Amino acid sequence: MSRAVVHHAPGVDCNVSIGGRTVTAMAEAVVDLDAIAHNCGLLAATAGPAGMMAVVKADGFGHGATEVARTALRHGATWLGVTSVAEALALRAEGLTAPMLLWLYPPTETFEEVLTAGIDVSVGAVEALEVLADAADRTGTVANVHLKLDTGMSRGGAPAEEWAQLFTWARKFESAGLLRVRALWSHLANAENPQASGLLAQLREFDEARQAAAAAGIDPPIVHLANSAAALHLPQARFDLLRAGIGLYGIEPVPGRRFGLRPAMTVRAQVLLTKRVPAGTGVSYGPDFVTDRETTLALVPLGFADGVPRHTSGRASFSIRGVRCPIAGRVSMDQVVLDVGDLPVRAGEWAVMFGPGDAGEPTVAEWARWADTNPHEILTGIGHRVPRRYESIR
Ligand SMILES: Cc1ncc(COP(=O)(O)O)c(C=O)c1O
Q: What are the structural domains of the chain?
C-alpha cells in the first residue's frame, strides 16, 4: 500500500528554505503515525478497562510530542504524561486539552501557570503540597494532585516513612478546598521481569500504600502503576490507568515476548560519496580500522551529534537496499563510513540506521544492544538536526 506524506514536524522541514533556495536535508527520521495509532490501540485494548496515559516526555521519546499526543488521543489514550513544565505548557499551547500529568519540576516552581492550564501535578513531598495549595489559593483553582509513593525504586516519590504526613497534609488542603487528590501512583523498577523478587516486593508495598491512604481518608478515583511492560503482562499492576512510553513507540518491552507492537521511527540518511579502496586502507580517526580486502566505502552524514552512539564503532551496521553494512572505523560527530563490500551503492541511496526491521534494516533493539543501553536512549538520542517527517495513510 502506498504511503502519503501528510505533514512535517512543526518548525522543521525536510526541505529547508534558505535565502529563497531550497536545501534538501541529508537525513531524516520518518515517524509512522499509523504505528503509533496501532500501538496505542493495542495497549489500550490489552489493559482495558484501565485508561491509558501516553507518555510523551522527551519530545515523545524523540518522535515529536505534539504529533504523538494528537495521534494517541485519537486512538485510545485519555491522558498525557510529561516531565517538565515546559513540555506541559507547550502541549497546552498546541491546543491539547486532555488530562495531563506533570511529574518533575524545580523546587522554585510556583505552579500558577500549571494550575491555570489545568495540568495535574505529581507530589511526593509535603513542601510541594504547600506550594500547590498556595498557588491554588492565588489563582482561584483547585490543584489536582497525584500522590507519588516510593515503593522501592528509591527515585521519585515519598518514602514509606513520610506517607502518613503526606496523607495528613493532603487531607487538610482537600478540606480547605485547595486541592484534590486525583490519584495515588508509583513506578516499577523492573516490570519486565515477572520473576524478579523486587517486583513482587513493590507490588506488596504499593498495596500497603493504598491501605495506608485509605486509612487516612484518601480514596482517589485513580490508581496507577503500570508502564508498558506491566500493562502488557502484569494484570495485577494495571489498576485504573497505565502509563505507556516505549510500547507506544513500538518497542517490545518484555524480553522474549512479542505483543504485536510496531516500531514507529525509521532513521535514514543519503549516501554522500562512495569510494573503492584496496586492502590495507585506514578508515576514519586513528585509524582503528583498516580494510582487510578491496572494498567500497560509503560516507553517510549521521554521527554521534545525531544520535549514532560513538560506542558502537566496530559493532553496529546500517542497511542499504536491505543489506547490512557495518560501520568502518570510529563514528565521527557528523558522519560514519560504511563498509559496503561489493554492493554497487551509488551516492544518493538511502542508508538506514534503524527501522521496523521488515526490510532487513537494523532495529532500535539491536542498536540498544550494540550500544549497551536501552531502546529509550537510542530513540531519545536522535538529535534535533535530523528533521522528523510524519507519515500516515489514515
Ligand atoms: C514514571 C514513568 N512512568 C511511565 C513511564 C513509561 O515507561 P515505559 O517507557 O517503560 O512504558 C516512564 C518512562 O520512563 C516513567 O518515568
A: 32-244 (3.20.20.10), 265-391 (2.40.37.10)
